[in-house]
Structure to design on (272 residues):
C-alpha cells in the first residue's frame, strides 16, 4: 500500500464520520463527502419524527470505533441532534435545513479531547459551483469564512479560509489531470507562501454499480491508484417504506481479500 493511500484510509477512519460541522473544509473531506454518507437524517420516503443511527468503523490500525447519533425532528426543517461516542455524549446540536436537506444553520455544543465543551455557530450559503461556510459569534457577526469552489464535475478546485477583519487568507488550490487520473494539491499559508504540494491519484468515474433503488453497491476509492484499486462493497437492508435501515461496507483489496470497514444501522420512527 503506498504512503498516500495509507494516509487517506487513516483519514477516513479517524475523521470521515465525525460529522462535526465546525471542522474546516479541506480537499480531503470535500472529496470524502462525494463517497460517504453524512446526512443520516435524510429520509427519501415518509416523514420521520426520530432517527437513531448506530455506526461502527473498523480498521487494522486501532480498535473499532462506535458512534450513536439521535436526530429528533422538531419540525421538518429543524433537527435536534445528540451524538455519542462509546456511549459518552460528545455533541448536542441544532440543525436547520433547506428544501434540499442541506444544512443552512448549525449550532453545536461539542466536547473536545481535553474534556472541555465548546459552542460553535455556523451558517451556510449555496450557489452554483460555490459553497460559503461562515462561523459566527454570539452577536451574529462572521469571524471566519470558508469558500469552496467546484468545477463542472462538482469537484473542489479552490478552498479559501479567511479570517474576517484581518482579511488574511489561507488557500488550497487543486489542479486535476482527468485524462491521466492525477491531481496536484497546493497548500498556501496566510502569507501566500506555498507550504506543501501533494501529488496523487484521482478517479472521477468511481461508481461501478448501483442497485435497483439507485444506491451505490460497488465503487472505487475516488483517490485510489487504479493500478492498485481498493473497491468498496455495500449491502443495504430497507424498511417497508423503502428507506435503508442497514448498510454493510467492506473493502476488496487488490489481492482479493475482503475486510470489514463500516456497519451502519438506522432506526426510523415515522409521524402518523
Amino acid at each position: 500500500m503506498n504512503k498516500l493511500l495509507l494516509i487517506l484510509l487513516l483519514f477516513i477512519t479517524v475523521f470521515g464520520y465525525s460529522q462535526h460541522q465546525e471542522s474546516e473544509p479541506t480537499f480531503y473531506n470535500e472529496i470524502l463527502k462525494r463517497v460517504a454518507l453524512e446526512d443520516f437524517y435524510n429520509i427519501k420516503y415518509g416523514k420521520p419524527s426520530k432517527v437513531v443511527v448506530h455506526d461502527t468503523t473498523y480498521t487494522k490500525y486501532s480498535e473499532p470505533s462506535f458512534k450513536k447519533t439521535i436526530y429528533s425532528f422538531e419540525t421538518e426543517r429543524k433537527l435536534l441532534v445528540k451524538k455519542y461516542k462509546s456511549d459518552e455524549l460528545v455533541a448536542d446540536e441544532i440543525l436547520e435545513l433547506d428544501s434540499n436537506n442541506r444544512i443552512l444553520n448549525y449550532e453545536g455544543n461539542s466536547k473536545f479531547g481535553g474534556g472541555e465543551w465548546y459552542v460553535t455557530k455556523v451558517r451556510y450559503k449555496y450557489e452554483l459551483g460555490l459553497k460559503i461556510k461562515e462561523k459566527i459569534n454570539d452577536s451574529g457577526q462572521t469571524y471566519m469564512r470558508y469558500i469552496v469552489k467546484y468545477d463542472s464535475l462538482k469537484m473542489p478546485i479552490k478552498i479559501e479560509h479567511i479570517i474576517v477583519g484581518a482579511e488574511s487568507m489561507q488557500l488550497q488550490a487543486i489542479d486535476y489531470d482527468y485524462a491521466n487520473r492525477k491531481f496536484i494539491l497546493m497548500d498556501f499559508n496566510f502569507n501566500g507562501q506555498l507550504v506543501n504540494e501533494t501529488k496523487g491519484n484521482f478517479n472521477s468515474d468511481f461508481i461501478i454499480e448501483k442497485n435497483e433503488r439507485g444506491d451505490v453497491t460497488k465503487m472505487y476509492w475516488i483517490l485510489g491508484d487504479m493500478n492498485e484499486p481498493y473497491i468498496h462493497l455495500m449491502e443495504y437492508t430497507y424498511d417497508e417504506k423503502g428507506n435503508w435501515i442497514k448498510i454493510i461496507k467492506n473493502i476488496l483489496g487488490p489481492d482479493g481479500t475482503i475486510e470489514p470497514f463500516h456497519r451502519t444501522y438506522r432506526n426510523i420512527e415515522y409521524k402518523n
